[in-house]
Design brief:
This is DNA-binding NarL/FixJ family response regulator. One of its GO terms (biological process) is regulation of DNA-templated transcription. It comes from Nocardiopsis algeriensis. The protein folds into two domains: about 140 residues, Rossmann fold, CATH 3.40.50.2300; about 55 residues, Winged helix-like DNA-binding domain superfamily/Winged helix DNA-binding domain (Arc Repressor Mutant, subunit A, Orthogonal Bundle), CATH 1.10.10. It is α/β, with parallel strands linked by helices and about 220 residues long. The chain is built from eleven helices and six strands. It has a six-stranded parallel sheet, with helices on both faces.
Length: about 220
C-alpha cells in the first residue's frame, strides 16, 4: 500500500501540534520516521531516518522553515517537503516554494486534508491550500519571464546530464534515478553537480525550476 511506503519527518517546535500530526499520520498507517522541534535536529536525524517526505513548520527556534526546506532538498536522498504553517501570507508561501517545498497547507486544514496532501506530495504532486495555487503559478510565470534572456546561449549539457535533469524534474530521488538508468548513486550526484555548475544554480529546487522552464519537467 502507498501509505506503508511513505516515511514522514515531522518538524514543529510546538510539542502538542507535533504530536498531533504524528498521531494522525500513524493512525492512517503512515510511518512517522522521526520528529524534531528544531531545524538542527531535523537535519541531524534525516540521513538515518530516510524520510520520503518532511512536514515542516515555517517558524522554528534555530532557523526558518524556508532555510530548513532548502537544506532538506539539498540532501543526497532528499525528501519532498510539505510546509504546514499558521501563515497564509503570500511572501511566506512563495519563499517556501522557491526553497523547494512541493506543497503548502495552513494549519487550519482538517485531518483528512492533511493526510491527502501528504499522500499527494509524496507522489510529487504540488498541493496548496485553496487560493494559494494561483499565487504560486503566477509567480513562476513572472520569474520565467524575467529570467528568460534570448541573447544568452543555453549551457551545453551532455545527453546523460539532460536525462538525469529530466528525472530530477519529475521528482525522482537520486537512488531512484540510479536504478532507472542503471548507474551508481554517486554517478547521479556527479551529473547533478556538473549540471548545477554549468547552469550557475545552487540547489535542487532551482534545478527543477530550470527544467520546467525548458520543458523537461
Amino acid at each position: 500500500m502507498e501509505s506503508e511506503r511513505i516515511r514522514v519527518l515531522v518538524v514543529d517546535d510546538h510539542p502538542m501540534w507535533r504530536d498531533a500530526v504524528a498521531r494522525d499520520l500513524d493512525e492512517a498507517g503512515i510511518t512517522v520516521a522521526g520528529t524534531a522541534g528544531d531545524g538542527a535536529k531535523a537535519l541531524r536525524i534525516a540521513p538515518a531516518a530516510r524520510p520520503t517526505l518532511a512536514v515542516v513548520d515555517l517558524h522554528l527556534p534555530d532557523m526558518s522553515g524556508v532555510e530548513l526546506t532548502a537544506a532538506l532538498v539539498a540532501l543526497p536522498e532528499p525528501p519532498r517537503v510539505l510546509v504546514l504553517s499558521a501563515s497564509g501570507a503570500g511572501d511566506d508561501v512563495l519563499a517556501a516554494v522557491k526553497a523547494g517545498a512541493t506543497g503548502y497547507l495552513v494549519k487550519s486544514a482538517g485531518r483528512e486534508e492533511l493526510l491527502d496532501a501528504v499522500r499527494r506530495v509524496d507522489r510529487g504532486e504540488a498541493v496548496y491550500t485553496p487560493g494559494l495555487a494561483g499565487l504560486v503559478l503566477g509567480e513562476y510565470r513572472r520569474l520565467s519571464s524575467d529570467e528568460r534572456r534570448p541573447e544568452a546561449a543555453a549551457p551545453a549539457l551532455t545527453p546523460r546530464e539532460t536525462e538525469v535533469l529530466r528525472l530530477v524534474a519529475k521528482g525522482l530521488a537520486y537512488k531512484q534515478i540510479a536504478q532507472r538508468l542503471s548507474i551508481s548513486h554517486r554517478t547521479v550526484q556527479n551529473h547533478v553537480q556538473n549540471t548545477l555548475t554549468k547552469l550557475h544554480l545552487h540547489n535542487r529546487a532551482q534545478l527543477v525550476r530550470y527544467a520546467i522552464d525548458q520543458g523537461l519537467g
